[in-house]
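Today's session is about reading a structure prediction critically. Students often jump straight to the picture, but the first step is always the sequence itself: look for stretches that repeat, for charged clusters, for runs of hydrophobic residues. Only then move on to the predicted structure, which in these notes is written as discrete structure tokens rather than atom positions. Here is the chain we will use throughout the hour.
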Amino acid sequence: MTIVQPTLWGDLDPGLEAHPAPGARAAVVHDSFTALRGHTERIVAHASDRVAWLRARAAGITATDVARLASLRAVDAVVMDKRYGSRFSGNSFTEHGKEREPVIAAWVAATHGIQPSAHLFHAASNRAHLATPDGVGVDGSSRVVLAEIKTTGKAWKSIPRHYLRQVWWQQYVLGADRTLFVWERHDAFVPVADEPECRWVDRDDDQIRGLIQLADLVLDRLRDFRS
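Below is the predicted structure for this chain, in token form.
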């Protein structure tokens, strides 16, 4: 296993993604590159090593950061938090989520075969593009599939948009085409059902391209501050 530290310089790894075949669509290049170099070769850190994990996340842009990038106006806010740190340190809702995540992850593994993961990965084409999905697996066609787990006190009619941005970014970083989005609703921190709800989210390369542009704006501005 190769452990590669992320940088803010957007280094391109040599391979198919740097030189796509003539006429090839950008939307499918990730499949060829993933076949060449699997996601397990792009592990940066593990959440159990808290210091290394936080240091690596601070050096790049994560799915949590990208979830906030709804527009150009959000770029400055993300830049400030990356520079000075976020004032948000958690609350009762986040603590409940941490407590329930292992239980929900076990359900995901038992019902869908997607194993829990706490690894931080970098994208094949940019070591500063980072993601830590809650679950990583491989389907019957040897394609990477992901899981993302949430807890909520609300009855969702659809997946909130900021979570979709998080999912699409994770798919880009890992080279995945599908994510099982899983959520457990609670009432005063007591689960309302015996099992969580779930829905498959397909990869959207148009959305991903827009997120990459906004993420790179954040990285460019951080680079300017550090130069």
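Discussion point for the tutorial: The CA atoms of residues 138 and 144 lie 5 Å apart.
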